[in-house]
Amino acid sequence: MLKSFLNQNFTTIDDLASVDQVIKRIEGDRLRLKEQANPGGGQNRWALAGSLIQQLETIVDQDDVAAIDDLIHKYGKIELLTSAKQELSKKLVLKNIKTLYDQYLDLTDKLNDFELLELPKLKTDDAISHLEKLRTDVEAYEKSETDGPSAAASHSEYIDLLRSKFQSVAGGELKERLASEFESLIRDWDDEQKRKTSDIASMRKTFGQLVRLQSICNLRDQTDAFWALDCLASNFKVKFVYHFEGSSETNKLNKPEYALNYLEAYMKKTVPAVEKLFGSTFKQYFPNRSLKKNFIISLLTPVKQKFDREMGSVSKHEGLLSHLILELQKFDQNLSKTYNFTPAEPEYTRLLTSSLILSNEDVFSLWLSNEKNFVNHRYEEIINKKDAFSIDKDFVENGKTKPTRSAINLKSLLEGISNNYAMLPTKFQVKFLSEVQLRLLNLYFANLKQGFNALDTIIHGKINDEVSALERICRIWCSSKYIIEAMATWGESIVFLELWSSINGNSRLETTFFDSVIKGYNKELMLQLPRKVHAYFERQLNKTMKTYFISHSSWATQSEDEPVPSRELDVPLAALKKDLTYLRTVVSYSDFLKIQLVLSDAITSYFEKNVIYCNKFSVGGALQLEADYNEFYQSLGLLRDNAHFGKTQEIISVLKCSSITDAYSLPLNWLKQYQVNELVSRKNL
425: closest CA among 362, 488, 373, 359? Predict the structure, then answer.
């Protein structure tokens, strides 16, 4: 209701001039309410109405809304009281708006008087001091109390108008006067040989006046560019334009590094000089801002303008664009390293890569496409090399996973990508990681999976070439394990921890960026490869143990003489020794121990299926079996684990018993009752 009333009566700021007339009308409405009091209904009601009207007259004169609320609480929401409250509320809001408007007009008049009448007559320091007082008045006005949302909205509008007016005055004629004076003093400031010692005091004084003026003008503490620093950078702009615009020999599209190196050399010479000459003065007025960083930002302006003008031509050529971005990134990284610029907003947005590339959606998309094309081409080169999956036994020390050449080159490529994009803001890093790096890891996984799927055919001898089945298994094993280890290391690095934290907050810090990819490699490759190794060892045993199998068909009739390992084991033992020697040189020590257990299982399974559970045994036969089985562990240096070696020793113990009673009396840990029954049935008693 109040908002509707204000909109109806005050459509513009100028309408506030008639606020007194509106207030008089409200007073008239109050008097009419008094006259409309109904005398009928008895003496008591008339007395009550008269008493209320008397109280309301006093309350309205005192603008006391709280007192009306007390009456409403006491007598209820009768029309006389609620109408009086509404009218009084309107009156108070209007008075508040009128007061705010009058104060706004008064401050505006003061600013106009200063700009038009006082400024031309005042000395610079006096003018700045006067502006400081006006700023104090403006800030005091900003803190004025308001009565309700309508008054607050009007107040906010007046504040914006005042700020705009104040900044126009502070950044107008006085600023231009000071800037012109400062530029005349600093023509040779960046040339130590030409710079006169006698001019330094004047330069510092004028610099201080200009910075002080801007600190006053800076009502919201959001200065993007500093007037004094822009003046200091004007010398560089003149020289830069001369060398890198127009038909100058140094102005070449394919050599952006010329311009960047020129700027870098200029910064190296002048940044220390700026801090020495003006550092303490700048800090006095802007204690939380960096002089050197903001001076560099001023120097970047003509450089940005040059490259921005050339972007249309450069972006038409993939090579030129990639080269430009590479040089821009190198330059920004040097700024970060040398001058402590941080790869985060708002600082990063002021640098060249962000200003020229990331803020331009079309250019960024083109860059991303070019990078994907380059990386895909590089990946194809890596994967299609003849020795792509050859294992490099000298790349890491013994005891660690020896990587294939493709895994080495892929890791190097991925780390290069990470380094190239390390300074990009999070959302752009994620873009490159998802569309470039993770894609490469998935492509490599697909290549390894293809090789994995072909292993069964290779293991069973259906494909014969110069690469053995075991080496093919190890190529996939070593490639997968090396990349998994690399991803685990990357995931724990500061760059990826910060990136993962920025994506997920604190909700998933127990995981890392690459966990899902690592999980895929482990599930589909590393957890399945031991089965392929087992199948290979089974194939080896079946192929090399044929002579042994044929020559040992009379286990039930062998004598109990002291047995020695069978000579027929020489061939399988030699083959397995060769395999273990190779495995020891290419897989990590922990993986080699796991593979030994796989071989133990294969040997145990062979003896169980081909010897133990298809023959009958005398005590002498059991002793020979024990000698032959133990020879594998002794000769190959296998781990004597309980699951395989321990279980087989219990089997042999049962077979060695001279009576059934002895067999059932043995203390057994691994054999079940049904297995003992089966073994007893195979004794030749």
Answer: 359
Distances, alpha carbon 564 to alpha carbons 323, 560, 567, 607, in Å = 74, 11, 9, 17
Q: Name residue, tokens 């009502």.
A: 219
Is the previous residue joined to 346 through a cis bond, with omega within 30 degrees of 0?
yes
- Of 496, 527, 558, the last residue of a domain is 527
The residue out of 111, 130, 145 marking a domain boundary is 145
Do 547 and 502 share a structural domain?
no
Residue 90 has pLDDT above 80, yes or no: no
Q: Which helix (H) or strand (E) holds 604?
A: helix 589-610
Using CA atoms, how far apart are residues 491 and 307, in angstroms rounded to an integer? 36
**Residue 6: what pLDDT?**
43
For residues 72 and 53, what is the distance between their CA atoms, to the nearest angstrom?
13
d(CA 641, CA 217): 82
Looking at beta carbons, which pairs linking 659-668 to residues 24 or more positions away fall under 8 Å? Answer: 659/685, 660/685
Q: Measuring CA to CA, which residue among 630, 611, 629 is closest to residue 682?
A: 611
What pLDDT score does 507 carry? 55
> What's the structural domain count of the chain?
4
Paired tokens of 464:
């014969």
Look at residues 406, 264, 416 and name the one whose alpha carbon lies nearest to residue 328. Answer: 264
Cβ-proximal residues to 641 (8 Å cutoff; 6+ apart), any chain: 597, 600
Same domain, 442 and 567: no
Query: Which helix H or strand E contains 242, and what residues bound it?
Result: helix 227-244
Q: Which residues contact 58 (CB under 8 A, 6 or more apart)?
A: none
In 3D space, the residue among 640, 608, 646, 624 whose CA is nearest the CA of residue 565 turns out to be: 624
Burial class (CB in 10 A: 0-12, 13-18, 19+), 665: exposed
C-alpha dihedral (182, 185, 188, 190), degrees to nearest 10: -40
Dmax (CA) for the chain in angstroms is 139
| ∠ Cα 44 45 51 (to 5°) | 90
**Mean per-residue pLDDT, 666-674:** 91
Residues 6+ apart with CB under 8 A from 345: 425
Close Cβ partners of 254 (under 8 Å, ≥ 6 residues apart): 320, 323
663, 683 contact by CB (below 8 A): yes
| Structure confidence at residue 45 (pLDDT) | 57
Range of the domain at 53: 2-145
Q: What confidence score (pLDDT) does residue 46 get? A: 61
Q: Report the distance separating Cα 621 and Cα 335, nearest Å.
A: 81
Would you list the DSSP string of 452-496?
Answer: HHTHHHHHTTSS-SSS-HHHHHHHHHHHHHHHHHHHHHHHTSHHH
Instruction: Please count the CA atoms within 13 angstroms of the CA of 141 that sit on its side-chain side.
Output: 29
Q: pTM of this prediction?
A: 0.71
338: tokens are 């040398």
**Do 393 and 345 belong together in one domain?**
no
Percentage of the chain beyond pLDDT 90 is 49
Identify the CATH number of the domain in which residue 659 sits.
1.20.58.670
Distance between CA 186 and CA 184 in Å, rounded? 6
Q: What does the block give as tokens for 242?
A: 């001369």
The whole-angstrom separation of Cα 449 and Cα 529 is 11
CA distance 227 to 225: 6
Structural element, H or E, at residue 366: helix 361-384
Is the pLDDT score of 38 beyond 70? Answer: no
